[in-house]
Each structure stands twice: as structure tokens, then as C-alpha cells.
Amino acid sequence: MLDYIVRRIIGERNPTDLSVRKTCGTIASIAGIVINLLLFAGKFITGTLAGSISITADAVNNLSDAASSVISFVSFRISAKPADRDHPFGHERFEYVASLIVSFIILIIGFELFTDSLDKIIHPAETEFSLLAVCVLVVSICFKLILYFFYRSVGRAVDSSVMMASSADSLSDVVSTGAVLIALFVSHLTGINLDGYIGAAVAIFIFISGLKILNENKNHIIGTAPDPKLVEKIKSEARSHPEILGIHDVMIHNYGTSRCFATFHAEVDGRDDIFKSHDVIDLIERDVFEKYGVQCVIHLDPIETDNELVNELREDIYESVKGIDERLSVHDFRFVPGVTHTNLIFDVFVPFEVTTGDEELRRLINAKVKSISTGYHTVITFDRG
Predict the structure, then answer these.
(1) Does 290 lie in the same domain as 237?
(2) Distance (Å, whole) CA 23 – CA 10
(3) Which residues, listed in sequence order, are joined to residue 349 by a DSSP beta bridge?
């Protein structure tokens, strides 16, 4: 049902379009503000009347959720602003900053609730069981489940980290409120006062949720490795053109969910007409953007293909480097003959998983090259990634 509502809101428009993200985010944020403020008021009054720290703690958690929804509302408005002179790549990354702020609020609330719950454990006070408290908590669980599914639907539809963070937070609220409800019944039926302990457990749960959101969005801001599936799709698109003989130095970075950029080197036959090769590159850049929404800048690398000696040496070097470690690869191979010696100039790509140092790799490669001919000198550049 909620997925259907989100699809109706989006309609035929592109989900990654800034105006669509702004509309969906605004509606979800307003819903979160209204519902969480109502739940806060109901729980706070009920918790105060019943003398229950766990219900009051749950109420304060709803207040923090309302504040988070305000931040989400602001973030969608700012993220939707177009690029300008000071921000040529747009403002979409502000959404990650907003998610960080939300996580800090959740952490602070969790810590404060934990200290209050410890005080209740040390100085226990009797809590009053009431039908009002049960009804308020049950209604809260129902509304939080609705918010969870709604936030999740919006987050998946428009690829929003803020909405996914809010979704996870709403699900944690369902668990924490459920725990408070169970404690209320246990205390009423057995006389065992679990109020402070459940309050502490809720606080820890809230704190852990905040840490998870903080870690996820910290990575977005610092930068993470691109999706391997996306990298392979871009490579496959380029390799589908017979003029492209090889690809290397692929770099992908984003400035938000809808602004993704990629650069890579494409090897072509040095004998090909430069205008023809440039036309192929333009075609690849256009196709990648239309299919995957990634703006590409491709560097043209002409390579020598009609020199048998160079071709044999290139293959020898490739095999030699692979013989050291299968994960290594060679690109940008050049053969520069001289009077006293011949320089073999090439780059070696070293994945992060390979822990061998550059100097040790250089020594091993040089030993392999010397076994081919002592007249060859190497000029090696190591690319780690």
C-alpha cells in the first residue's frame, strides 16, 4: 500500500530527479514531524502520570525523532538546490551531513536516557499500571510501523540515505516501545519493577542505532569504493566497442545520489584515425550517462599494435607481473629504444589487498625483466587502488 502511494507521488518522473526527491522527502519529513510530536505528547503525559521512566524515555526518543524529521525536511530543501558558482557539483551531499546530525541527536538522547535509567535502577519508584498507558504504547507501535514502511519505501524509491536512516530509527522505536510495553505488563503481573532496566535497554538500543547511522554516513562523506557491479557495467559498455583494446585507471566518485562521475583510460590502436577514436569515446560517454546516469571523462591511450617485438615484450611483461601476483595488472606499456639500453616504461596496478611494498615489487619485476634481456631497463609507476 505504501509502495503504491510512493509510486503515485513519483508518477512517470525520474526518481533521482532533484524535484522528485524534494517532493518525496518533504512529504515524508512532514509526516514524521506531525506523528512524532503527537506520540511525544501522549507518551510524556502518560509517563509522567504513571511515574514511568521507560515511558518518558520513549517519549523523549519520539521528540528526537521529530527533530530528526525537521533536519530531514531542511536537508531535502537544501539538497534540491541547483549547482552554483560556489558549489559547481550541486548540494546533494548536504543530505549526508543531515544524516550525521540525526545520528548525533540519537546518540545524545541515548546517553541521557541511559543515565536517567541508571538513576531509576539505583532509586526505584513504583510505576502505575493503566489502560491509558497500554493504549498509548500500542498506538505508538502501530504508527511507528507505518513510518518505518513509509520511510523505507521513499528511501528505496529515491535512494535517500536520510530516509533509510529514519526508517531504521523507526524500526528501533518499534522494538524499544514494545520492550516498554512488555515491562509494564511484567511489573503489573509479577510486582517486579523492570522500569529502570527496560529504560536502560531502550537507551542502549537507541545509542547503537545512532552509531550505525553515524558510521554509514561517515563513509559517504569520506568516500567509499564504488559498487563493483557499476564498475563492471561501465567497463562492459566500453569494451562493447571493438575499437577499445583495453581499459584501466577507472575512478568513480559521487556528489550525491544523482551526481556520479567516472574517469578512465581507454586504449585504442595508435594507427586509428584520431577523429574516429574521439567519436567512439564520445559515444561511450553518452551511452554510459543514458544507461547508468554516470558522467564520464575518458582519456584516450593510443598503443602500438603493429610492432611484433613490442607486442611480444608487452605479453612477456604481462605474464611476468602476473607470475609475481595474479592480482597485479600492467597498462600504458611503452618501448623506448636507446644506444646503450632500451627503456620499458609501464604502469602496474596494485589492488589494496596486495600488501607487498612498491620497492619489493620493483625488485621482483626487474629480476623478471633481466631474465628476458639485460639490455632492458624499467621505468615503473605503481598505481594502488
Answers:
(1) yes
(2) 9
(3) 329, 383
Q: What's the structural domain count of the chain?
A: 3
pLDDT for 215 equals: 83
Residues 79 and 133 in one domain: yes
Q: Please report where in the chains the cell 577514436 appears, as a residue.
A: 277
Cα angle 154-80-74, degrees, rounded to a multiple of 5: 75
Quickly list DSSP for 95-149.
HHHHHHHHHHHHHHHHHHHHHHHHHHHHS--PPPP-HHHHHHHHHHHHHHHHHHH
Is the CB of residue 172 less than 8 Å from the CB of residue 209?
yes
Q: Give me the residue label for grid cell 551531513.
A: 97
Residues 172 and 241 reside in one and the same domain: no
Domain extent, residue 143, equals: 2-222
Question: 54: helix, coil or strand?
Answer: helix
> String of b and e for 128-155 (b: at least 16 CB within 10 Å)?
eeeeebeebbeebbebbeebbbbbbbbb
What's the chain's average pLDDT?
Answer: 85
Q: Which three cell numbers stand for residue 246?
A: 583495453
Helix (H) or strand (E) holding 86: none
Cα separation of the two ends of the chain: 44
Q: Smallest Cα–Cα separation from 157: which of 10, 282, 271?
A: 10
Per residue in 87-99, pLDDT (tens digit) is 888 887 887 887 7
- CATH number of residue 188's parent domain: 1.20.1510.10
Residue with cell string 545512532: 210
Residue 8's pLDDT band (cuts 50, 70, 90): low
Residue 295 shares a structural domain with residue 318: no
CB 293 within 8 A of CB 258: yes
Specify the pTM: 0.63
The amino acid sitting at 109 is: I
Q: How far apart are CA 364 and CA 382, in angstroms?
A: 13
**164, 189, 222: which is the final residue of a domain?**
222
Give percent above pLDDT 70 in the chain: 94
